[in-house]
Structures are given as structure tokens and as C-alpha cells.
Amino acid sequence: METATEGQKLEFKNFENKPTALVAGGAGFLGSYLCEALIAQGFNVLCVDNLARSSKKNIEKLLSFPNFFFWEEDINRAGFTISPNVKITHIFHLASVEEYLSSNNLSLETLLVNSIGTKNLLDVAVQKKAKFIFVSSSEVFRGAFSQKNLSIYFGKEAGTTHLTFGEAKRFSETLAAEYFNKFDLPVVIVRIKDPYGPKMNLSSDNIVSKSISQAIKGKIEIIGDGLRVANPTFVTDIIFGIVKAAIKGEKGEIFNLISRERCTERALAEHLKKLFGGVEVVYKEQKELDLPESPLILDDAQGKLNWDPKVPLDDGLVQTVNFYKVGGTENKEEKNVPSNPIVPPVELTGKKGFDKNFLRNLFLGAILVLFLWATAVPIITSAASYYLGNKNFNSALEELKQDKTDNAVAHAEKAENFYKRSQESLQNISWLLTATNLKGTLQQTSNYLFLAETLSRAVNFESKSIGNINDASSADGEKLKEDLKKAIENITEADKNIDVASTISIDARKLPAFLNKDYQTLQEKRQTLESLSETINSNLESTQ
């Protein structure tokens, strides 16, 4: 422990002026998205995870960021603490946040993480005077029904893990409240329900993950009439709410980050059947009664945080399904990859007295060529991709202003892909920039490219929305309604990307000189997109 925390202290020195977040469960589904969001917000992030039910693959893209640190550790361990030299401003507790996994062992772990683990994190929060954000679940509302279901605590019925999870979260909330009362600890609680999205854990027993898991296998089995209700909430909406609660939430507040969009198990199966194609939906007799639906409180976050889910269910399912269609996996064991390639020995043959200097020069020359290849190629690729991204972005924006929506969409998609490619190439030389004390430049350039990528998506969705409005102008009846609905959905997505762009923190002083002017221009383009969005929204409101 001491070695790990001392190492973290040395790395954090260059970022002491930034807020520092400890994310427990940071390599999990929700935790990995939260780490990405906090990095984009300019936080230092210490990700703590024992990898029992998560995967390091979820955070592999973050490992090269200079202000991201991964620590494989169990928060349940006796004596868990953080070195006094490491400054922590926020603690996010997302360990065991994914709902009621079916394994009995994981049910026990759920209780331990939400008791011992929570206490350990609360003690660290008191020591560091850090804000404590606990991610809970709507399952706590089931407490009113627990007295009617005590008989199944010692059974093997499916409801047992539901009760385990709900009671564990209720205990954690109560424990956090006691620390709030006793130590005046700034505690904020957020509750979620039915989270879903790419990288979700398909072993979870909630309606959404179970249905997607079965759809992948080609057969969805529905027990009973299929009228169980879910409130699927897309992962990025949840994360946006958690970050808002951490920054704007007052101590002692509770926020329910739950979508108002309800969906029955039957309707969800039909959605997935259309998306996957060739999926069979089978109904089976229900032999056991379900636990009663828990009551929900949905107004706190909307009022206090001005939070509302932006991603409609159809769009979220498309993104999730596409992730698994192209081979996305969850919780696979990571294979041990040797740090150096294993090369079979090569036997040199030749005449006696072979010139050793020639061999040495040949070897040094080969190393030089490899070094130039490893550095020059990524730099050239990143620069070329950035140039092409700018070219397509500018074309898309001009075409958007001229109502050439189809061309604008095509160029915006190309711009987004080129900016992504530029970021990937830049990360390939992160080791070189780190070694030459250019970590800050690397971070700010990555943030800049992410900003450009996000604004490209905004142009894409605004162009689609205007195209839908143009189509609606010559339509009537159901076609008119459908076009206007699509226009609203697309401008909502555009607004979401503009909102994300406004939260990306960039220190222009650390950008390469040639990007400084481009950064100012990009900010002006963001303002242009905001203005266009307001006009589009105004036009759509007039049609209502």
C-alpha cells in the first residue's frame, strides 16, 4: 500500500492545482465512463478497482493520460487508506453499483462492499475533507416490502439477490448519512435505475441487460406476461448527472437520476428483435410471483440539477447493440501479454573474420529506423488527420449554413473520424512526449481534438435536424409528424454534444503555438452552433 500511494504522490505533483477524484469501482461499466468524464473536466483521477467484476480493458484508453492513475486494490481490505501526501477533493463510490448479479458469491461481496468498503471510503473522506458522492440505486425503495419477503432470505429464489442489493444500498446510504451528521461530511447521494449502454455488464439481472444478452444469442425468453417495467437510462446521461451532482449538489442532498421513459419487458424485446434481426421472442409460464414494483421519485434531479436524460431509448439501444454487433465484450479474462515480443534465436553464419563493426552499425541503423518509424509516422498521421478533420469540419459548417444538409452530414462524419484518428495517433507517441516533459501539451492537445470531434458531431445532428424540417415542409399527416419527431431527436443530440463541448477544459497556454489561433476559431464555431441550435429549436417550437 505504501509503495503504491507514495508513487501516486510523486505523479500528482504536477497537478496540485486541479481537483483530484478517487473513483472506487472505476474500471466497471459506469465507473469507466465517469473516469473519462472527470478527465474531460480537468480532474486528476485515481481509479481504484480490484477487477473482481470489471475489466482493465474498460480504462485502457485512459492509462496514457498523465492525470489518470489506476490502482488495483480492494476497498474492503482492513486498513485501506490513502497516503496523507495525496490530496483528494472528491470520492465517488461506484463499487458494486451494477444491479444484483446472479452469483451468490457476488451477493456476499455486494454486502461487504456496501458496508466495510463504504466505511473505509467514508473514513478517507473525513481524513481528506473530501466531498463524498455515493451512487446508490432505486432498489432502496423496495425496503417497504422487505417485511413481506423475509421468508426468501434463506432460499435460492431470484428475489434474494434483489433484496441483498437493495438492503446493501440502504445500509450504505444510512452509513453515509451518519457520517454527514457526525462529522459534517459533505455527502451527496445519487440513485440510478436500469443503466445501459456500450460496455454494460450482461451478467446483471436487470431487464435491459438480460434482454440484450439473450438477443445476442438469438432468443429472448420472457417469464410471464412481459409487463414488468424498466426505466432504461443511458450511461452518458447518468454520468452527466453524477458529475453535475458532484459539482453543484449541496451536502446532504439526494438526486434520483432516473429516466421518465418507461418500457415494458415485452416492448423492449420487440425493439431488440427489430435491431438485431432474426431474434425469437418466447413467453414462458411464471411459476413464482415477482417482488412488487418499487415506487419511484423522479423529480429531484430535474428540479435541482436541471438534469434530464438526452438519449431516447431507440438511440441508446442502437448504440448498445452496435457495440456488441462489432464484437464488444464484457468481463472477459485478460490474457497475459509479454512486455517484449518473444523472438526465436537467430543463428548467424558466414566466413571467419566477419566484420563486427559492420554488424554493430547495421544494428544501430536498424534501431534508428525503428525509432523514426515509431515517432515520425504517428506525428505525420496525427497532423494529416487533423488537417483533413479541419477541412471537412469547415466544409460541413458552411454547407450547414447554406442548407446543403446531405453534404454537411457527410463532411461532418468525415471530420469526426479524422479527429478521432488524430487523437489515436497522438496517443501512440505519448511515451515520447512524457519523456520530454510535454505531458501538459499532450493532455491539452488531446482535449482540443476531443472538442473538435464533439463539435463535428453537433454539426452532423444539426444538419440532420434541418434536413428533417425541410422534409416536413413538403409533407403532411403521419409523414409530417415523423419528420418533426426526427428533427427534435436530432437537435436534442446536437444540444447534448454542444453541452459536452462547453464542459471540456483546455489551457490554451499549454497548446502548441499553431493550435492557439485554431482554438479561438473553434470556440467561435461553437458559439455559431449554439446560435443555430437556438434558431432550430425556436422553429420547432412554433410547429408544436
Question: What is the topological layout?
Answer:
Layout: H1 2-12, E1 20-24, H2 29-40, E2 44-49, E3 68-72, E4 90-93, H3 104-128, E5 131-137, H4 159-183, E6 187-192, E7 195-196, H5 207-217, E8 219-223, E9 229-230, E10 233-234, H6 235-248, E11 253-257, E12 263-264, H7 265-276, E13 280-284, H8 300-304, H9 313-325, H10 356-401, H11 405-427, H12 430-435, H13 439-473, H14 477-503, H15 513-541
Parallel strand pairs: 1-2, 1-4, 2-3, 4-5, 5-6, 6-11, 7-10, 8-13
Antiparallel strand pairs: 9-12
Helix pairs in contact: 2-6, 3-4, 5-7, 7-9, 10-11, 10-13, 11-13, 13-14, 13-15, 14-15
| Series of H and E elements | HEHEEEHEHEEHEEEHEEHEHHHHHHHH
Average pLDDT, rounded to a whole number, is 78
CATH topology of the largest domain: Rossmann fold
Domain count: the total is: 2
Percentage of β-strand residues: 5-15%
- In DSSP terms (H or I, runs of 4 or more residues), the helix count works out at 15
Strand order of the largest sheet: 3-2-1-4-5-6-11
- The CATH homology group name of the largest domain: NAD(P)-binding Rossmann-like Domain
Residue stretches low in confidence (pLDDT < 50, at least 5 long) are 1-10, 100-106, 144-151, 330-354
Shape: globular
Please summarize the sheet with the most strands: 7 strands, parallel
Helicity level, as a percent range? 40-55%
Distance between the first and last residues' Cα: 60 Å
Q: Which structural category fits the helices and strands?
A: alpha/beta
Rg over CA atoms: 26 Å
Number of DSSP E strands: 13
What would CATH call the class of the largest domain? Answer: Alpha Beta
